[in-house]
Amino acid sequence: YGCSLDEIAAVLGEGQDDELATLLRSKRRALQEAREQTEHLLTWVEEDLSSIEGGQGIMAFMDKVEVKVTERDEQLVLFVRQEMGVDEFGTTFGKLFELASREGAQFRGAPLAVYHDEEFNPARSDIEIAVPVAEPSEHTRILPGGLFATSMHKGAYSGLANTYAKLVQWVEENGYRLNGSPFEIYLSEPGVPAEENRVEVFF
Hints:
By secondary structure, this protein is of the alpha+beta class. Helix content is 37%, strand content 24%. The protein has helices at residues 5-14, 17-53, 89-103, 160-173; strands at 68-72, 75-84, 112-115, 125-132, 140-143, 146-154, 183-186, 198-202. The protein starts with a helix and ends with a strand.
């Protein structure tokens, strides 16, 4: 299962099934995360292969992504932050809206997600789910404002990687420096067809 010799020695030394069960649970989680990451990579490979076989270059998407510069004011947001995979978004948004209901929060904008890791892993990353609200509480914070490079993504969420790639390229080519974590605002109603998804990405 990919156990190290030290891990095996520890289990043998203890001689207890509890120790072995704890180790195997840890390995199961690591394998599940690796499988999820592989599935995401396979999706991207299929999309790129389809583009190439359709006569488009692998970087053709760059020409379709428009980047703008905009100023945003700071926002008060109600948030839930945790280590999670993208498949847990629905559950975590559920937690957030339950929290909002308990606090009687008044929404002041569309929900969003902030990505705090330097490198995004769809199977497990430090992600903050949030929604702008009117009044502060112990579960709110200020989402900083400032100057942002932004792009509107339209279509399936799997294509968001292309929008991020374009934004990274644009920031580098135009002499800007990243300051803070990127975030995305979900402008579509839940349950709309994938091709109708609208997500605004901010760097």
